[in-house]
Amino acid sequence: MKSFDYYFADQEYVLHLMNLKTLLLLFRTISSLSKSFKIEESDFEQITSWYTKTMHAFNKMNNKLTIRFQKDFDRLYHQISEIYNGQRTANEKLCAEMQNQITSLVASAYPDIRGKHIVSVFKSDEDCYIGRIHSFVNMLNKSTFFILLIDLTTLTKLKEHEVKDLIEIKHKLESQNMELGIIVDGLRQRNILNIFDAIRPIEDFSVYWSENEAIFGIFKSEGCYEKLNQRLKDVQ
Fold first, then answer.
1. Which residue among 57, 68, 87, 224 has its CA within the 20 to 30 Å range from the CA of 201?
2. What's the confidence (pLDDT) of residue 34?
3. pLDDT at 72
4. End of a domain among 61, 80, 113?
5. Nearest of 59, 2, 57, 48 to residue 25 by alpha carbon
6. Which of 45, 78, 113 is the last residue of a domain?
7. By three-state DSSP, how is residue 182 classified?
8. Are 157 and 192 in contact (CB under 8 A)?
9. Is the dihedral of CA 76, 82, 83, 89 positive or negative?
10. How far is CA 191 from CA 26, 127, 152, 183, 233, in A?
């Protein structure tokens, strides 16, 4: 295919993939910048390439996302461009401001993908929720979603057989190349949090105190970055 000539079975889904890829590249570059105060040529070239692809896709879609992200993406990209070209000097204050901008961009993008693309959320209850999780996972569209968050914040206890089932579900998702995050209220559900801590040497779950924390934690992980790259490779 020629540059930018994509055929998308679901244009909106691929737009979100490209958007997330660009956000992760920006995040990685800013994280590195905060340590060395310089941007490597290879990093800048990769960001420029994906920034251009994403903006092109936004313009083709011509929806609210274009309006929402164009200004913020432009601002952040041009800040990085100015630093790379020596027009602006990086310092701790500027890097902190740019990290806040990335956080804001991810937070703004999340509602548009939650339950629609990339990220699916299952909310548990006290009544036979394990069986519903199994059904939920079996019915989940693996071609569209690759992150599942299981929200356990309504539970008062976690039984042994439920822990075993969660381990089984985790293994199943891993075999399908999916990311799993568990959400537990760390202040109110200390007993459940302690169970996940206790089994960590046997099975290491990614446990978060809120949905927002889970999203940022998973998005920043190497596993998510690799899965995102593979999805983009598959659809282009």
1. 224
2. 83
3. 85
4. 113
5. 48
6. 113
7. strand
8. yes
9. negative
10. 38, 19, 12, 14, 42
Tokens at residue 151, please?
A: 């929200």
Residues in the chain: 236
Higher-scoring residue by pLDDT: 77, 5: 77
Confidence of residue 68 (pLDDT cuts 50, 70, 90): low
For 109, 126, 156, 196, the CA distances from 189, given in Å and listed in that order, are: 29, 14, 7, 11
The enclosing domain of 162 has a CATH number of: 3.30.750.24
Residue 122: name the closest of 71, 70, 59, 166 by CA: 166
Task: For residues 92-114, give the mean pLDDT.
Answer: 89
Q: Are 18 and 231 in contact (CB under 8 A)?
A: no
Stretch among 3-12, 78-87, 219-228 having the lowest mean pLDDT:
3-12
Say what the pTM is.
0.86
Res 4: pLDDT: 37
Task: Give every CB contact of residue 222 below 8 A, 6+ residues apart in sequence.
Answer: none
Separation CA 176–CA 161 (nearest Å)? 23
Please check whether residue 72 is in contact with residue 101, taking contact to mean a CB–CB distance below 8 angstroms: yes
State the Cα–Cα distance between residues 227 and 229, nearest whole angstrom. 5
Asked whether residue 32 falls in the same domain as residue 87, the answer is yes
According to DSSP, the residues that pair with 147 across neighbouring strands are 119, 179
Give the model's pLDDT for residue 196: 96
Is there a contact between 47 and 29 (Cβ–Cβ < 8 Å)? yes
- Domain of residue 195, residue span: 118-235
Closest CA relative to residue 26, chosen from 77, 65, 82, 64: 77
